[in-house]
Amino acid sequence: MNNESNLPPETSRVSPIVAHERKGLLRFITCGSVDDGKSTLIGRLLYESHVIFDDHLAALAVDSARFGTRGDNLDFALVVDGLAAEREQGITIDVAYRYFSTDRRKFIVADTPGHEQYTRNMVTGATTADLAVILVDARHGVVTQTRRHSHVASLIGIKQVVLAVNKIDLVGYSRDRFDAITADYRDFAADLGFDDVVSIPISAVFGDNVTTSSENTPWYVGPVLVAHLESVVVDTGAHRQPFRFPVQLVNRPHGGFRGFSGTVASGEIRPGDDICALPSGLTSRVARISSADGDLDEAVVGQSVTLVLTHEIDVSRGTLLCSVEHPVDVADQFEADVIWMYEEPMHPGRRYLLKLGPITAGLTISPPKYVLDVNTHEHLAAKTLVLNEIGVCIVMVDRPLPFESYASNRDLGGFIVIDRMTNATVAAGLLRFALRRSTNAHWQELDVTPESRSAMKGHRPGVVWLTGLSGAGKSTIANHLEARLHDLGVHTFLLDGDNIRHGLNRDLGFTETDRVENVRRVGEVAGLMVDAGLIVLVSLISPYREERQGVRDLVGEARFCEVFVDTPIEIAERRDPKGLYAKARRGDLPNFTGIDSPYESPVEPEVRIDTTRVEPGAAAELIVAKLRNMNLVGDSAARF
């Protein structure tokens, strides 16, 4: 590798620094099952590339004696297993990125966890990789985690794969074992869409076929690992695609300059080129391309620049600037691959956040069309996704987004899902295509508006949402409240939780997922009734704050009154006319709120009713007073 005559002619004539800068870069990922030797392999690569300094080698020797598994020899896995928990357990937990180079190429390698629990970390490492080195222990062959990581690599868009059959020394450098594993993997991976799978027998511990050919495998005539990594051709084709530029920042350092900063996702752009801003559809022309090195005559894929336009059009963070001749589609409903990466399962209908490049939007996910069996490629029926499952779902966002399929453009088709309450990243998603109803179904303009319906009724519409434990007294208070509003001439409708489960929600159980869907459906119906001009009373346990907040957002802050019917569980249990608490205590009624399913009390409800002190009739009067204060009922309610 150090033979200068093997370098391109122009490289041998320039300084080492310039030659290093001109080298190409390959990003790759190592993945596989637990203890397949990923960290050891990367440690070996770093050692052979002479990027480990003497003091680090000395520290490695000490750590090898303390944590290592190689006796008196260096344990190369410890080079990248930096966390104390990793060293103690002998597994990789976090994603470790390492940098090294040879005479021909620079490399960024991501060492990702092998344990099933940390598949989500593998997804993180794979999103920027051009190639995957999938390690298999020669003793165990292809296992479930091998298949899972291969599926993820395929979904993420990796086309080049190296099957590194590691620990070949532990099977006596057996050619038959190597050939059997290679055949097994190729048969499994045939439908995953990889462009190339190169199989190499290696021993990361002893260096067989890592940087030089091994005398122990005279039957192997293919490339050694480093030689293949140096020569493999990776072409995403992004430079041949139409121009795409997601705006990250509206750049206004002073009043005389307004530009739009970001990174060119595909194609190229020059001053004078016409562009289209999506989703607005407004057009303009590029006046300047500004960069840290001054104005440019051209910007290409991967360059971070600021575009100055000739016209003052409405552009903000998340706007996509693209080719006028080849614009992207805009939609708000998609089919997508979803990789669930959170301990808590996905809740169809719950409101999450989608982050697609610089865009953040509200998101809901439907129940999966199917879940993928990583061993058989079968499509399995499922109601939700749990940790590490891969499914195909319909995803819906709260506004139209410019996009391309992930297969066409990673930057415009790959997204993450964020829990609104915890801000945790719970899933990764890959857009497949927009649904036809996303663009074909439009809101029909109606002559009779919600405002005119409200004016006819003489009061504003709204939702009174009574929440609390089973037996708290929600339905009793709601009945008193509706009777009182009826006396005041207010047009109402009462949606009671038990009644709804006899019809609209008769197909739902009491799992967390079903509870989320229960509230979502009731919220949608309440929203329609608000449009009809009614004050809708909802009596529903609705145990989760996120779902109650979702209804509030749907109908509007000014039209939503949350009433917390606050009753201690011991009192609710004593009332219990249906005997539900007793059944739950015996274990005959699983997922019962307050017993084995949580209830999240409102933080700042509009009204709190302490039922240990306030009778139902008085509680109804308190709520009416609040509705008057909110201008939903009373003399002022009719004035808009």
Question: What would your notes on this structure say?
Answer:
The chain has 640 residues and is an alpha+beta fold. It has 4 domains: 4-231, P-loop containing nucleotide triphosphate hydrolases (Rossmann fold); 243-323, Elongation Factor Tu (Ef-tu), domain 3 (Beta Barrel), CATH 2.40.30; 333-439, Translation factors (Elongation Factor Tu (Ef-tu), domain 3, Beta Barrel), CATH 2.40.30; 451-638, P-loop containing nucleotide triphosphate hydrolases (Rossmann fold). The protein has 19 helices and 28 strands. Strands 2-3-1-4-5-6 form a 6-stranded mixed sheet, sandwiched between helices. A hairpin with a 3-residue loop joins β2 (96-101) and β3 (105-111). α6 packs parallel to α7 (144-156), α13 (474-487) packs across α19 and α15 (512-531) packs parallel to α16. The protein is flat and about 95 Å long. The termini are far apart.
Tally of alpha and pi helices: 19
Unreliable spans:
1-12, 81-93, 636-640
Number of strands: 28
Assembly type of the chains comes to single chain
Could you give the topology of this structure?
Layout: H1 9-12, H2 16-22, E1 24-32, H3 38-48, H4 54-67, H5 84-89, E2 96-101, E3 105-111, H6 119-126, E4 131-137, H7 144-156, E5 160-166, H8 175-189, E6 196-201, H9 225-231, E7 244-251, E8 259-263, E9 268-269, E10 274-278, E11 282-291, E12 294-295, E13 299-300, E14 304-309, E15 320-323, E16 329-340, E17 352-356, E18 359-365, E19 370-372, E20 379-380, E21 390-403, H10 410-413, E22 414-418, E23 425-434, H11 436-440, H12 450-457, E24 462-467, H13 474-487, E25 492-496, H14 497-500, H15 512-531, E26 535-539, H16 545-555, E27 560-566, H17 569-575, H18 580-586, E28 607-610, H19 616-629
Parallel strand pairs: 1-3, 1-4, 4-5, 5-6, 24-26, 24-27, 25-26, 27-28
Antiparallel strand pairs: 2-3, 7-8, 7-15, 8-14, 9-13, 10-11, 10-15, 11-12, 11-14, 16-21, 16-23, 17-18, 17-22, 18-21, 19-20, 19-21, 22-23
Helix pairs in contact: 6-7, 13-19, 15-16
